[in-house]
């Protein structure tokens, strides 16, 4: 029996090559798309799941009454021990301090600027599951002036030599640390939110900073005891904080915490002060939906084609039933054919995935998540369910046929069967409409962001990172600027604490002069020099900028419009000449010299933030981190490096082009738009393949009808309208349900952008028009060939 089923299955599939090819190719593309999208979404959801359970990040929240004024992912160094000592349910904690973590590291003549050189608690490697290749997790970060580095960093500085016990020189704010290497850890996996190459022992931290409560620069993690009440811990913290926040800054606010599960961090919305590159939970969920839609569309194609061919199989089924075939045997036969098609599709999908996998790795950094045993099991289950679901309906339709009716040639589709087939085609059209509308919305938003005026000049600007500690930057900076300006092709030079495309990330609790302490709010403090406003082309809307000929300007500030509103000034003009108290300066206020128009310090995904441009020498804690050099030369490194080496020989020369750096903020959005375009196109292609097969078959079944109509005087135009109107009408009906759904999805996605492209009427009409043209283009040739065929060819045997 099994041999017979397999033999009949092979004969059927090989006899109907076009039918088989359309089904196999459509299903193979659907399976490959499902695997590729699933690989990416699984990777995005896998972040930090390698660690022990029940780990939470302690995030800071500030409230004025019931209104939350600020929400940061960081905390102070004092939070962790205070929580452990005063609240129940905390098994252990660890901290990693990211403050000014970009440092110059040197070993002999080898020196590099490293992005994340952090301080970490002694139990860091016992708390987290980052494996050590050398050293003991319990002791590697115990002693003062000890450092642990990644395997890649060890090779970079020491080659093949054993790094253990060797001394690395690390620049800090206070000077240079000489740290002994006590361990080497395996390179941090790409699905870790924290990415670092060097960790210095917490014992090396200055004593005053180890439990300091007024610098929210650390990530604090706690592991809760089983059954611990998270809400009770969060509710108990404000009372604990009241005993520790003895300083004047933010004293009138209620300090609170929010415990965030470690695996949730990556896909949560981005906040200020976050170090890691965030994912987008809604985009990931949307891609998962698209993956299932594509697979479902491929299965619907098979069901449609299989049921449409029921007329061809009807006599075969009737003869089998008359010959004594049992219904179970017939169902098994058709399920075997369905399974055969799905198996062929699965094997064809393998090379597609293998060919496309490197593209996924290159564009998204995904590795090791396309195939593992869970993936194989998941695909096997899905394919089994899909094969059963796709094969059972056509099988039941055919098995229920009455042999007497079939053998007399009176079998036709029931109205219910026709409605079912149209419903499945409608589903494909509806899904395609949503995908087309989504693709248009994504590309409109990308175009909107690329065309939007940022309010700042980025072109022809080379940004050089400021030297590390010990370079005597404040004294050397004026002479270095003069030397840079003397170079041919250098237009302007300015120094600042941040550049456009980079979060300012230095906050001060400030208020208007004469206002009570309760009016303090947080502002981004951006250290600049006299040339910053002109160099970046910031537009003054009131007052003036810093003037190098006026020494008193060093104790003045320039505000952006958002800062003017937060300070409570009536207008930019009203703010000029007024005074403000800046945090850590208690002896005198600073004068507002001018107001610049709000500009996009970061991407359009972020709203405008209150920024204070300052030069006050008493704000030593607000650093200078960058030189911005506007240059006409194309060979910037060769031109600038000799001057740099002359003034800052102890520091590496690290630079980037500002326009490229600024555009990098949109990398994820661009990747997402490309992904949506590729997989939406695949979904539409698969739907069109099914529509092509369906049209070919139904047109063939209506050949005699078309011949009769032509004999009775029907024109080619009339026949074409008859064959295509059903498709067009179905698309129009689908749009009534699909477009409102697309609108809701697109609005939800756009909510993640502070500045977004407006929704217009035409972007809802275009998907319908595009789908109509695609459908007509798919079916047009077959319909036209049927319409112009000679009636005698179809009626001569009647």
TrEMBL record:
Sequence ranges assigned to domain MacB-like periplasmic core in this UniProt record: 20-235, 455-603
Keywords assigned by UniProt, alphabetized: Cell membrane, Membrane, Transmembrane, Transmembrane helix
Transmembrane region(s): 21-40, 289-307, 328-355, 375-401, 422-443, 676-698, 719-746, 761-784
UniProt GO cellular component terms: plasma membrane
Major subcellular location class: membrane
Topological type in the membrane: Multi-pass membrane protein
Database matches in InterPro entries: ABC3_permease_C, MacB_PCD, Macrolide_Exporter_MacB
Residue ranges annotated for the ABC3 transporter permease C-terminal domain, each copy included: 289-403, 678-786
GO molecular function: transmembrane transporter activity
Pfam families: FtsX, MacB_PCD
Keyword Protein biosynthesis recorded: no
Subcellular location: Cell membrane
Source taxon at top rank: Bacteria
Stated name of the protein: Putative ABC transport system permease protein
Source organism of this protein record: Dinghuibacter silviterrae
């Amino acid at each position: 029996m099994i041999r017979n089923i397999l033999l009949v299955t092979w004969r059927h599939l090989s006899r109907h090559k076009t039918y088989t090819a359309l089904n196999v190719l459509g299903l193979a593309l659907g399976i490959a798309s499902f695997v590729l999208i699933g690989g990416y979404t699984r990777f995005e959801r896998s972040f930090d799941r390698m660690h022990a359970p029940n780990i939470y990040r302690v995030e800071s929240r500030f409230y004025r009454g019931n209104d939350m004024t600020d929400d940061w992912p960081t905390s102070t160094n004092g939070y962790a021990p205070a929580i452990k000592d005063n609240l129940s349910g905390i098994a252990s904690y660890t901290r990693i301090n990211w403050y000014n973590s970009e440092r110059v590291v040197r070993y002999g003549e080898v020196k590099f600027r490293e992005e994340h050189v952090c301080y970490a608690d002694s139990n860091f490697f016992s708390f987290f599951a980052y494996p050590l290749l050398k050293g003991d997790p319990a002791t590697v970060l115990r002693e003062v002036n000890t450092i642990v580095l990644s395997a890649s960093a060890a090779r970079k500085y020491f080659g093949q030599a054993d790094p253990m016990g060797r001394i690395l020189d690390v620049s800090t704010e206070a000077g240079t640390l000489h740290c002994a290497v006590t361990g080497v850890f395996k390179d941090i996996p790409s699905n870790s939110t924290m990415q670092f190459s060097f960790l210095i022992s917490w014992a090396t931290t200055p004593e005053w900073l180890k439990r300091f409560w007024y610098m929210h620069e650390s990530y604090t993690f706690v592991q809760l005891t089983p059954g611990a009440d998270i809400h009770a811990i969060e509710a108990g913290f404000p009372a604990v904080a009241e005993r520790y926040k003895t300083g004047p800054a933010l004293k009138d606010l209620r300090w609170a915490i929010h415990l965030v599960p470690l695996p949730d961090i990556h896909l949560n919305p981005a906040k200020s002060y976050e170090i890691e590159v965030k994912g987008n939970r809604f985009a990931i969920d949307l891609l998962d939906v698209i993956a299932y839609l594509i697979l479902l569309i491929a299965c619907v194609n098979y069901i449609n084609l299989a049921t449409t061919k029921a007329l061809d199989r009807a006599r075969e089924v009737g003869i089998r039933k008359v010959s004594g075939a049992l219904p179970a045997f017939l169902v098994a036969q058709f399920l075997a054919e369905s399974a055969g098609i799905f198996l062929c599709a699965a094997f064809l999908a393998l090379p597609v995935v293998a060919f496309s996998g490197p593209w996924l790795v290159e564009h998204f950094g995904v590795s090791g998540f396309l195939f593992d045993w869970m993936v194989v099991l998941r695909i096997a289950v899905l394919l089994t369910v899909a094969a059963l679901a796709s094969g059972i309906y056509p099988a039941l339709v055919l098995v229920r046929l009455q042999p007497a009716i079939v053998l007399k040639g009176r079998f036709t589709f029931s109205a219910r069967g026709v409605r079912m087939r149209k419903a499945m085609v409608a589903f494909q059209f509806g899904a395609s409409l949503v995908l087309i509308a989504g693709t248009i919305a994504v590309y409109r938003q990308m175009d909107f962001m690329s065309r939007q005026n940022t309010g700042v000049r980025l072109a022809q600007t080379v940004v050089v990172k400021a030297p590390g500690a010990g370079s005597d930057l404040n004294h050397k900076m004026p002479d270095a600027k003069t030397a840079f300006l003397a170079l041919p092709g250098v237009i302007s030079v300015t120094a600042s604490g941040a550049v456009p495309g980079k979060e300012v990330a230095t906050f001060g609790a400030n208020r208007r002069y004469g206002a009570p302490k309760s009016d303090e709010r947080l502002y981004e403090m951006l250290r600049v020099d006299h040339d910053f406003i002109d160099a970046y082309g910031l537009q003054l809307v009131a007052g003036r900028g810093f003037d190098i000929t006026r020494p008193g300007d060093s104790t003045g500030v320039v505000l952006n419009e958002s800062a003017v509103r937060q300070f409570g000034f009536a207008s930019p003009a009203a703010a000029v000449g007024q005074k403000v108290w800046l945090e850590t300066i208690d002896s005198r206020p600073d004068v507002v010299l001018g107001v610049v128009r709000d500009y996009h310090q970061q991407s359009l995904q972020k709203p405008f933030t209150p920024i204070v441009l300052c030069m006050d020498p008493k704000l030593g804690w607000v650093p200078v981190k960058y030189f911005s050099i506007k240059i006409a030369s194309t060979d910037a490194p060769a031109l600038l490096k000799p001057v740099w080496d002359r003034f800052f020989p102890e520091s590496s020369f690290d630079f980037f082009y500002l326009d490229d750096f600024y555009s990098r903020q949109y990398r994820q959005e661009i990747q997402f738009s490309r992904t949506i375009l590729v997989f939406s196109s695949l979904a539409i292609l698969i739907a069109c393949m099914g529509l092509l097969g369906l049209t070919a078959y139904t047109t063939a079944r209506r050949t005699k009808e078309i011949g009769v109509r032509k004999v009775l005087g029907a024109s080619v135009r009339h026949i074409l309208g008859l064959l295509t109107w059903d498709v067009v009408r179905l698309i129009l009906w689908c749009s009534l349900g699909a477009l409102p759904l697309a609108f809701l999805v697109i609005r939800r996605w756009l909510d993640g952008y502070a500045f977004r492209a407006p929704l217009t009427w035409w972007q809802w009409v275009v998907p319908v028009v595009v789908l109509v043209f695609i459908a007509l283009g798919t079916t047009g040739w077959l319909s036209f060939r049927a319409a112009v065929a000679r009636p005698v060819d179809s009626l001569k045997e009647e």
